[in-house]
Design brief:
The complex is a heterodimer of chains A (350) and B (505). Chain A is mostly helical and 350 residues long. Helices cover 70% and strands 3% of the residues of chain A. Chain B is α/β, with parallel strands linked by helices. Classes of the chains: A mainly alpha (350), B alpha/beta (505). At the A-B interface, helix 9, helix 10 and helix 14 of A face strand 1, strand 2, helix 1, helix 10 and helix 11 of B.
Chain lengths: 350, 505
């Protein structure tokens, strides 16, 4: 416990130390830049605007999921239900557009305008997130198990709503005032596709929330030491619940975007998305133990995964090798996280 | 004793860490059958030296000798093989395993490759008997109070038949009677030729148990001497490098208005019908042995533990249905006992740890203001004289005393009217302890009512305006400053169940 900080005799210059430290913390960004340079020099097609646009649109899906996932992982939890929530939200949106909300008790069918449809889908996603949060906080179910359960429940609910089928042609009808759903997935603002804007907005809002607000600070505090946070007056249960709701909300956004891009809602949408999102968060330097990391890293992590996939395709690397390489990259990222921990442990253990 | 050859010797050991020099050419030895006390303020290098001796870390320069032969300890396993055992200051037990499983962790007694549970149990029971402890060896360690856990830690070292035993603050969680037992065990080990290196901040303890003392300061050896030739003043002079003056007489309580009133608080099996009052500017100690219910009482007051009954009034308004957060907002805060487990966010910087309980006060329109956070942190760093490079320094790289000051700062920023402090000087060195006392007195003189729990007689005697004694979950006595004496306090702390019922108004 006695530490060396009071023996202030520096052996190494401080500046050097700090730059290394910074590069290490921004390692996802560094890896991203290195990857872009490598692929750009190996394949001229890589930096073409067409390729980049497709690449970023792909990344946007995973990045939005990863932003929500970051809040959960920062508290020391995990959310396995994000893929299923995306599927459920897509089905909710598709169902509301194609068949409307059937209320047998009143004998009416209600159709909503598109923005309300999107809002209701997002509410459904946040609702499942809230269920996750309640299971974890009120009933002390381990996050892995709680969200594993809701992963199945949400997927089953999506299948039940759609009866296992796809809601096709989500065009809406002019007489019902619910057209225009395609804009979300395929429209563009200032030459950039809407999903990319959504990623930017969700990413910026997430980063802002995490780093600048009392709520964000409390998320980090809970991941660092839950008991100390509680004794400092942090309402641990409530903050965690909000974290899971943010994750559910982001997942629902993703589900709606995909449904809009395909103009159809399929109940199997989003399978294995949770793993990609977790991989992006971990690649971005967020510790699975909680308390360390950030939203920016997760977005960089999503880009690393996306750039890697895209670049390897352009280089003609076999699909099987692509999977192996992705796995290796994730493990290396976790090894780096371990190194960081050992590094800081050494610093304090003197 | 002085003629015995050195059992374990460190020769001119130096330890560099990135950026700092933790230990600078230190010579140190422990002989068979002696207790060699190692002392110094936090950051002096004691823990580093012990870690080198235990094989946790390797010296950058210099070497170790065991029984006159140079050895290299690459790991704690090497050290264990050589017969060097270590009792860590922060307990290193497995709360999810039983006492016997903990004792034999990584040195299981086996028969034909299978754990020989009968033999293990027998040895464990034998050790408990030797330590005069009545702990069931099948209890989960996590269910034991801290003091008992420390006993398990000691059993663990004993089960390995050590020749050198390194003890880093072994008594920080023990009650006086448990310490007595520990000292008896230490003397017994001495008699069998075991060499003991003993780190503690409690000077009286060192004078009682030590044979030799070595003082470290800023990573360098200041002086070694036989305990018989020195006194407490000598040690403090060398530790701090300044002259030691006895603590000043402190001001009488101004006897202002009552701020906290506790009536008939009850926690089944832990706290029985406790009532007390606290006035503004009063500094009241709660003394008691381990398990007397002090921590539980404090937790009930702070809102982190549910009570079965009773009323808590702060400035006349009811508190018992409020959450921790609401109580903090009303001005009732608790500095918890276990700094690592309940006080600090290890992933945060010093500054962020300080502002955690008062984030709203540092936010504008829902946004945290870094400037205001830094200003608050810097103000308290100066006020509490925290040794640090600044608010951005990682909290884990601060010494124990400074970490404790950070936790206190965190609650001071909530502007408390009543500050509860549970064992505020646990694991803190002498210099920082005096500073923490001074902080408590200054706060009291500014009108904050302070209730602190302690199991250290001298701490209570030197600090409190008034002392409440707890025994077996009840208040057994209340003493004004003029009535205070060690005998009074001890007698009340050990009081029998029948005679317990006092309302400390």
């Amino acid at each position: 416990m006695s530490t060396h900080n009071e023996v202030i005799r520096r052996v190494a210059p401080a500046g050097h130390h700090r730059i290394n430290d910074l590069l290490f913390r921004l390692r996802a960004l560094v890896a991203l830049i290195v990857l872009v340079i490598i692929f750009a020099s190996l394949s001229p097609a890589f930096l073409s605007s067409g390729n980049l646009m497709i690449l970023v649109k792909h990344v946007a899906i995973n990045a939005i999921l990863a932003v929500g996932m970051t809040f959960v992982i920062l508290t020391g939890g995990i959310d396995l239900s994000v893929g299923s929530i995306a599927g459920l939200a897509g089905i909710v949106a598709g169902g509301l557009i194609n068949t409307g909300l059937v209320l047998p008790a009143f004998g009416v069918v209600v159709y909503f305008q598109v923005w309300l449809v999107i809002l209701l889908a997002a509410l459904a996603g946040s609702g499942v997130g809230a269920l996750n949060g309640l299971l974890v906080t009120k009933f002390s179910v381990a996050p892995f198990i709680a969200t594993l359960g809701t992963m199945y429940v949400a997927r089953g609910a999506a299948l039940l709503i759609s009866n296992g089928a796809t809601f096709p042609n989500l065009l809406g009808k002019p007489e019902l005032h619910n057209t225009g759903f395609a804009w979300l997935g395929s429209g563009s603002i200032l030459f950039l596709p809407v999903p990319i804007w959504l990623m930017a907005v969700v990413g910026a809002a997430g980063a802002f929330l995490a780093s600048r607000t009392p709520f964000g600070r409390r998320i980090y505090a809970i991941g660092g030491n839950e008991r100390a946070a509680e004794l400092s007056g942090v309402r641990v249960g409530r903050v965690k619940l909000l974290g899971y709701m943010i994750s559910g909300f982001c997942s629902a956004i993703v589900g709606v975007i995909i449904a809009s891009q395909l103009m159809s809602a399929h109940p199997a949408t989003g399978e294995t998305f949770e793993l990609n999102a977790i991989a992006a968060v971990v690649l971005g330097g967020t510790s699975l133990m909680g308390g360390r990391g950030g939203v920016g890293g997760s977005i960089a992590g999503a880009f690393v995964i996306g750039v890697l996939a895209d670049g390897l395709v352009l280089l003609g690397v076999s699909q099987f090798w692509q999977i192996v390489i992705k796995g290796v990259v994730i493990v290396v990222a976790v090894l780096l996280d371990q190194m960081q921990k050992r590094f800081s442990w050494r610093e304090r253990s003197s | 004793m002085s003629e015995a050859p050195a059992l374990l010797r460190a020769c001119q050991v130096t330890k560099h860490y990135p950026g700092t020099l933790a230990l600078d050419s230190v010579d140190f030895e422990v002989r068979g059958g002696e207790v060699h006390v190692l002392i110094g303020e936090n950051g002096a290098g004691k823990s580093t030296l012990v870690k080198l001796l235990a094989g946790v870390e390797q010296p950058t320069q210099g070497y170790l000798e065991f029984n006159g032969r140079a050895i290299r300890l690459e790991s704690t396993r090497d050290a264990a093989v050589a017969g060097i055992g270590m009792i860590y200051q922060e307990l290193s037990l497995f709360p999810n395993l039983s006492v016997v499983e903990n004792i034999f962790m990584a040195c299981e007694r086996t028969r034909g490759g299978v754990i020989d549970r009968k033999a293990e149990e027998q040895i464990a029971r034998g050790l408990m008997k030797r330590l005069e402890q009545d702990i069931d060896v099948h209890t989960l360690v996590g269910d034991l109070p801290l003091g008992c856990q420390q006993i398990v830690e000691i059993c663990r070292a004993l089960a390995r038949n050590v020749r050198v035993l390194l003890m880093d603050e072994p008594t920080s969680a023990l009650s006086p009677s448990e310490i007595e037992v520990l000292f008896r065990v230490i003397r017994e080990l001495k008699a069998t030729g075991v060499g003991i290196v003993y780190i503690s901040h409690k000077l009286e303890e060192l004078m009682e148990i030590g044979d030799r003392v070595t003082v470290l300061r800023d990573g360098r050896l200041v002086e070694s001497a036989a305990i018989a030739d020195v006194d407490v003043g000598w040690i403090i002079d060398r530790m701090s490098g300044r002259r030691w003056a006895p603590p000043a007489e402190h001001a009488e309580c101004a006897g202002q208005a009552e701020v906290l009133r506790v009536e008939h608080v009850h926690v089944p099996g832990r706290v029985h019908d406790v009532s007390l009052t606290l006035c503004a500017g009063e500094l009241v100690g709660v003394y008691g042995l381990m398990g007397a219910g002090r921590t539980e009482l404090f937790e009930v007051l702070a809102g982190s533990r549910a009570a079965a009954g009773g009323r808590i009034l702060l400035g006349g308004s009811r508190m018992e249905h409020l959450s921790v957060r609401e109580r903090i907002a009303q001005g009732l805060a608790l500095v918890p006992e276990d700094r690592q487990a309940a006080g600090l966010i290890p992933t945060f910087s010093l500054g962020r740890n300080m502002t955690l309980a008062s984030l709203e006060a540092h936010a504008r329109h829902g946004l945290l203001s870094r400037a205001e956070e830094d200003a608050s942190a810097s103000r308290l760093i100066a006020q509490l004289r925290i040794k640090t490079t600044g608010p951005a320094q990682p909290i884990t790289s601060l010494s124990g005393g400074n970490q404790q000051k950070a936790v206190i700062s965190k609650y001071l920023l909530t502007k408390p009217r009543v500050l509860l402090m549970d064992e505020p000087s646990r694991g803190v060195d002498v210099g920082a302890r005096a500073e923490i006392f001074e902080i408590a007195r200054r706060l009291a003189s500014e009108g904050v009512a302070i209730l602190f729990a302690s199991s250290d007689l001298h701490e209570v005697l030197s600090l409190a305006d008034r002392v409440l004694v707890m025994a077996r979950g009840r208040l057994s006595a209340s003493f004004a400053r003029s009535e205070l004496s060690e005998q009074n306090l001890m007698a009340a702390a050990c009081a029998k169940a029948e005679s317990l019922h006092v309302n400390a108004q």
